[in-house]
Amino acid sequence: MGVHPSVRPVKQSQRRFRPELVPEIEKEVDKLIAANFIREVKYPSWIANIVLVKKKNGQIRVCVDFRDLNKTCPKDDFPLPITELKVDVTTGHEALSFMDGSSCYNKIQMDPKDEELTAFRTPKGIFYYKFKMNPLKCAFGVTSGKFLGFIVHHQGIKIDQSKTDAIRKMLEPRNITELKSFQGHLAYIRHFILNLARRCQPFSCLMKKDTSFEWDESCRNTFNNIKAYLTKPPVLVAPIIDRLLLLYIAAQEKSVGALSAQYDEDNKERSLYYLSRTLVGAELNYTPIEKTCLALVFAIQKLRHYLLAHSTNLISRTDPLKYIMS
């Protein structure tokens, strides 16, 4: 972990739990011991507390508060993989296998000299984590499965139903924090939403500094329209190598957008990626042709990894060009 020897170890004060939760904690600890997930330790220099989280199946997950330990560890500069690229390479296969690591430090093999740094306190004693895969989350030879928040199968990529359900169940925002939360949920699935920037335009006034939060009819309609759109979101596909790519670009008064697509084996056009953004500052004063060019530059920057691998047909409205030629 790279903890510097000069750092003073932290032993968190013991937390109290409701009496009715203690048997559940002990039961979970017994399961972890029996599965060889954890090992008891004596006289550790670092001690963290457990945090209880209720899982989707109603069971208790025993997590650990490692914030003190994390602060002393050097930051890993290795970047996280790009979700869209990982999802793309997973689709298009007839059979898939999924493996998911169990919670917390069960996901990785610990360096023996670092194991005791992960010590945590429970009603049954002090333990540290080892390594184990979670068999309940492993699937082999299936035609589809959940991967990084999406459903992948040989026909394409869909949004995980739980993601759209969570958005559709959200109440109208009452303040800027709740509005940011709503937009944060949309950001993860933005490449599934056509003209997201234009759809969210009424929200932009509420995001400005020193502006009172006034949720009007326009915001309400936008909020409901987005949730209605997500009742049946599009199914995207991953790009097929050596096949022509179609790039649609468009420019509106306050936003630009693009769509990449390809023809499938049945000569049917399938969407690959939607993207859009709001115009800001001097961009709002651009002429129509300048906004169209900006849409092209924006699309090239975001989809460069696709465009470099495929011959591409560019498709756009001809009105700005007709104006220049005349």
TrEMBL record:
Transmembrane segments: none annotated. It holds the Pfam family RT_RNaseH_2. GO terms for molecular function: catalytic activity. Keywords: Multifunctional enzyme. InterPro entries: DNA/RNA_pol_sf, Retrovirus_Pol_polyprotein, Rev_trsase/Diguanyl_cyclase, RT_dom, RT_RNaseH_2. Residues 53-124 form the Reverse transcriptase domain. Residues 215-312 form the Reverse transcriptase/retrotransposon-derived protein RNase H-like domain. This is Reverse transcriptase/retrotransposon-derived protein RNase H-like domain-containing protein. It comes from Aristolochia fimbriata (White veined hardy Dutchman's pipe vine).
